[in-house]
Amino acid sequence: MGKFTFNTTPIEGLYVVEPTVFADQRGYFLETYNNEFAPYVKHLDGTPCDYVQDNESRSSKGVLRGLHMQLTQPQGKLVRVIQGEVYDVAVDARAGSPTYGQYFGVVLSEENKKQLLIPEGFLHGFAVLSETATFAYKCTRLYAPGDEFGVMWNDKELAIPWPVSEAEAILAEKDKKNHDFSELTEVLGQ
Question: How much is the average pLDDT of 15-34?
Fold first, then answer.
């Protein structure tokens, strides 16, 4: 029996992953990653790949990170919350995809222990719902600052129902200057 359940979403290749949790009076144990992920972790061209970078961030309530992607060196991600709770969003930005421009959002928390497996070619972002949150994720490619493209979190075309208001959202300076989704569509030639 596998240690993970890979739950499909309305967007092909995007999965909500639920680990098997072993709990007793001492606490709990779970695996967060093993070779069961191999069939799901692929480059955009479909070739298998591995995760090559692990990241961790800590943020306060109301912090909204995203929406980000890399254009020519796209990063697939496996994201989870170690402490706290976030609303996590992935937007399909794969050229030619039948679900191009569609988003999927899910609450990830230390309690539910869910992970989101995001393929290469997606925009990604999250909003912190708890007082603080520690967010961890694996990437299929190294971070390339010059290759990054950002779309505004509150883009009217995407119309993502974030659980934070514009007044509550705390953004990085670079995210205040992100693009409209239509600009990404032009860059990708969609």
Answer: 95
Annotated catalytic residue within 15, 87, 103, 137: 137
pLDDT, tens only, 81-131: 999 999 999 999 999 999 999 999 999 999 999 999 999 999 999 999 999
Q: Which of 68, 87, 103, 124 is catalytic?
A: 68
Mean pLDDT computed over 129-145: 97
179 as an active site residue: the answer is: no
Alpha-carbon distances of 113 from 91, 158, 182, rounded to whole Å: 21, 27, 34
Contacts of 145 (CB under 8 A, 6+ apart): none
**Distance from CA of residue 63 to its chain's centroid?**
15
The answer to whether residue 43 is catalytic is: no
**Greatest pairwise CA separation for the chain in angstroms:** 55
Task: Output the pTM of the full model.
Answer: 0.95
Residue 187's CB is within 10 A of a number of other CB atoms, namely 13
